[in-house]
Structure to design on (252 residues):
């Protein structure tokens, strides 16, 4: 049984993070409350949208309205090939007030501070820059410059940011949407780099999953590209199916 104050941890994963919405829908159907959210990268985006009061179906529609072409806005920089401003415009359009305190559910966002080599957590004050920093995939996006530091994707050091919830929640549910495929045949240097990055991220998840009471990971997300928004419906359904099966299995 899942009782008491429930915290939800949402991993990164690019477009695969849409599976978080399916898990949240399953939690709603099983009447499992969500009292706090901690997220990184895609998980930070999904967490903010849900915490601001939008339904899972509405958020799915928002994401589907964004084309991959819109994301591919060149940065013309040696530090990244794309601009993160597209995400900033998206947040302004659908959330409204740029404030953690304005959310209906408390949210913590993790981002990687590349100057200090640590994970920084944000849960108060301005929110949009924190989310953009958290979702700034290295090399792909130009780092987010904020508060005197340069930030990249929170998943690099912490793809399952459970720490902010440990002392504040009775039960922690984790949704991980960034698995790596068991078989991999590299075709070029870029794929080797991506594979190495994913393996590193999975390692930092392993040391944190044991701190969660419930860990849910759809088994077949590895084949989706991080920018594959065209598969949003399929990814959503995989997240929903995995979570529904899990909650039924534990008898909730």
């Amino acid at each position: 049984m899942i009782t008491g104050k429930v915290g939800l941890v949402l991993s990164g994963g690019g477009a695969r993070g849409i599976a978080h919405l399916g898990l949240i829908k399953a939690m709603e159907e099983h009447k499992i409350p969500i009292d706090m959210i901690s997220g990184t990268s895609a998980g930070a985006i999904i967490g903010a949208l849900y915490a601001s009061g939008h339904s899972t179906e509405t958020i799915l529609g928002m994401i589907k309205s964004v084309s991959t072409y819109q994301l591919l806005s060149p940065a013309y920089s040696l530090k990244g090939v794309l601009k993160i401003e597209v995400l900033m415009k998206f947040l302004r359009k659908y959330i409204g007030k740029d404030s953690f305190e304005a959310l209906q559910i408390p949210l913590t966002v993790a981002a990687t501070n590349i100057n200090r080599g640590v994970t920084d957590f944000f849960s108060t004050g301005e929110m949009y820059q924190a989310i953009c920093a958290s979702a700034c995939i290295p090399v792909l996006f130009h780092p987010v410059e904020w508060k005197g530091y340069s930030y990249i994707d929170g998943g690099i050091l912490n793809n399952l940011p459970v720490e902010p919830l440990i002392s504040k929640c009775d039960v922690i549910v984790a949704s991980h949407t960034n698995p790596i495929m068991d078989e991999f045949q590299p075709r070029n240097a870029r794929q080797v780099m991506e594979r190495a990055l994913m393996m590193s991220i999975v390692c930092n998840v392993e040391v944190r999953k044991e701190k969660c009471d419930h860990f849910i990971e759809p088994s077949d997300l590895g084949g989706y590209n991080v920018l594959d928004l065209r598969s949003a419906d399929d990814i959503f359904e995989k997240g929903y199916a995995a979570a529904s099966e899990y909650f039924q299995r534990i008898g909730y």
User: Anything to note?
Assistant: The chain is about 35% helix and 20% strand. The radius of gyration is 17 Å. Residues 189-209 form the longest helix (21 residues). The first strand starts at residue 6 and ends at 10.
